[in-house]
Amino acid sequence: DAGVTQSPTHLIKTRGQQVTLRCSPKSGHDTVSWYQQALGQGPQFIFQYYEEEERQRGNFPDRFSGHQFPNYSSELNVNALLLGDSALYLCASSLRTGDRPNEKLFFGSGTQLSVL
Amino acid sequence: AQSVTQLGSHVSVSEGALVLLRCNYSSSVPPYLFWYVQYPNQGLQLLLKYTSAATLVKGINGFEAEFKKSETSFHLTKPSAHMSDAAEYFCAVSDGTGGFKTIFGAGTRLFVKA
Known about the structure:
The structure holds two protein chains of two kinds. Chain A is globular and about 40 Å long. Chain A has strands spanning 5-7, 10-13, 19-24, 31-37, 44-50, 53-57, 64-68, 74-78, 87-94, 106-107, 111-115. Chain A has no helices and eleven strands. By secondary structure, chain A is mainly beta. The model of chain A has no long low-confidence stretch (mean pLDDT 93). By secondary structure, chain B is mainly β. Chain B has strands at residues 3-7, 10-14, 19-26, 32-38, 44-50, 56-58, 64-68, 73-78, 87-94, 103-104, 108-113. In chain B, strand 6 (56-58) and strand 7 form a beta hairpin. Chain B is globular, with a radius of gyration of 14 Å. Chain B starts with a strand and ends with a strand. The A-B interface holds A 4, 31, 33, 35, 40-45, 48, 50, 55-56, 58, 90, 92, 96, 99-105, 107-110 and B 6, 9, 32, 34, 36, 41-46, 49, 51, 90, 94-96, 98-107.
């Protein structure tokens, strides 16, 4: 049973460029959350997708956008990259159960983005 | 709004000693609380979770945590540290008021000395 897979594992971009990160959730999961983890800090919630719609969003600018596909996989897009966008981007999947909050997140190993 | 505060960015213990990692939360409703562990160059994995059942929660690798509503705390403990416990530990909260999202603390790095 494949867990959460993310690609690519590492990425180097320059300021002003755009980047797309990809995530395949754990088999059977329908919800994907994206987090940004700067060096030495905890994961910061970016947004969450369920049923191909953005359901919740953290305090991130509109430069951060996403998408969820019918097979539940997801993409995170970041436009006009800034030096401060350098971080580990983590994807987490879960199975939504009615109106209960996520009880358990399964994380991928992340994409390390470096902006030069 | 829900939030988590982890006291101490670094904790160092000797192998075989008690591990205590502190976490305090803020939530307007009964929360779900979690501890996750992150090893170098890896994602996070769940150690244990509290979901309003027993207040003392046992997790993997000998860890446990106690939910104390009066203190708004959810501290993580392990009676005897092992070298393999060296990692980053994150406390997290999810209470539904902010939607279906989990909010993480800043993390505590655990060092284990031989």
